Structure formats: structure tokens, C-alpha cells
Amino acid sequence: MLLESVNRLLRTLRHCVAATEALFMLSIFYKRHRPSEHFRRPQCLEFQI
After folding, report:
1. In angstroms, how far is CA 14 from the centroid of its own chain?
2. HEC string of the chain?
3. Phi and psi for 34 in degrees, rounded to 5?
4. Domain map of the chain by residue range?
5. Confidence of residue 1 (pLDDT cuts 50, 70, 90)
6. How far apart are CA 8 and CA 24, in angstroms?
7. pTM
8. How far apart are alpha carbons 8 and 2 in whole angstroms?
């Protein structure tokens, strides 16, 4: 029963790591291909606050 919960926890962690890696790759891809929008973003964030 303990082993089952540990396996479930490990599976969840693996999904979280995979999702984090995917987001990181997407952010790098986005910054590399759209630099002008990336530089414009801080001004947009200032207006939202």
C-alpha cells in the first residue's frame, strides 16, 4: 500500500517535471523567434498593475 502511494507520487512528480521542461522549452523558443514582442512586454505589464 505504501509502495503504491510512492509510485503515484513519483508519477505525479515526473509529469510536473515534464510539464516544467516543456514550458521552459516553449519560453526559449518564443524569446528566440519573437524578440520584439519580448522587449515590448515589460511596458504592457506596467499598465496592468
Report:
1. 14
2. CHHHHHHHHHHHHHHHHHHHHHHHHHHHHHHHHCHHHHHHHHHHHHHHC
3. -135, 70
4. 2-48
5. confident
6. 24
7. 0.46
8. 10
